[in-house]
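Dear support,

I submitted the protein below through the web form. The confirmation email said the job was done, but the results page showed an empty box. After a refresh the structure appeared. I'm attaching both so you can tell me whether what I see now is the final result or a partial one.
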Amino acid sequence: MEIFKPLDLQKNVPIVADTEKNEIVRCLIIGSGPAGYTAAIYASRANLNPVLYTGLEMGGQLTTTTDVENYPGYPEGITGPRMMEDFKRQAERFGADIRFGIATAADFSGKKRKVIFDDNKVIEADAVIIATGATAKYLGLESEKKYAGMGVSACATCDGFFYKGKDVAVVGGGDTAAEEATYLAGLCRKVYLIVRRDVLRASKAMQDRVFRTWNIEILWEHQPLDLFGENGVEGAILIKKKGTHQEEKVKIKIDGFFLAIGHTPNSDVFKQYIETDQVGYIKTVAGSSKTNVVGVFAAGDVQDPHYRQAVTAAGSGCMAAIDAERYLSDLK
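What the results page shows now:
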């Protein structure tokens, strides 16, 4: 028997699935960062027999991070990839079924929640936990990839400590950039705030904080062109606007280059059914992981526009598993 599926939001073509071949599970977890793996640990211990699909980036954003020193329980610090491998092994120890696969479409209209993976595998679940994370926006420079984990970062709270007493740059002109710059100013010798325009988009309160911070220098009407360095970032090449049609190249010496131009929540696949804010972050009921669809829960950075930390993601993964367990208990 075949059933017409909703549009694949990425390809804008109908998906047809064979319901006789659909796999039925109690708890489906989508995403393999701290939120997803923590949800899998709790769901496994609650005998929910969770199936977790990792997504394209197994381990999430932490796999692109070198050292993690602010997660409790690792007094000597740990690399991001190793930490996520530990999370995975712990989830597997309790029986979580962890698979590689990418969610390409979803149908939350029926009693069973359906998610399609890799365009052909259909999972029907009584409860779904979305923990697909958010992707930091980058400028698109080749050198950003070259120096990933070697001076380029999209999280000052995560990596700022490594640049204590050094010179760094923050790119952006909104609230996030202003907040990251002032945070880094408390650790670093000097912070360059690279702003494309001649004004900040940040709120008046955040602007005032930036202007009052003595070791922040704003580079107005500058845009990054490239980064350079032997074994890591040693400096940046900027384009400075001069007049209407004039530009000049400027070099600054820095040890760290922080992107603060926003994040993109990985929620597009679910937007047909799940309520999000204007940016795309999934809305949850205050104090819980519940979404507007009964039986569907959200955890981690995909629903968190404020903190975006491994520890808060893990905590929300715990909440989602407990919410899912209580929901499934009520179904009996």
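Response: this is the final, complete result; the empty box was a page-load delay. Residues 2-135+263-331 form a domain with the FAD/NAD(P)-binding domain fold (CATH 3.50.50.60).
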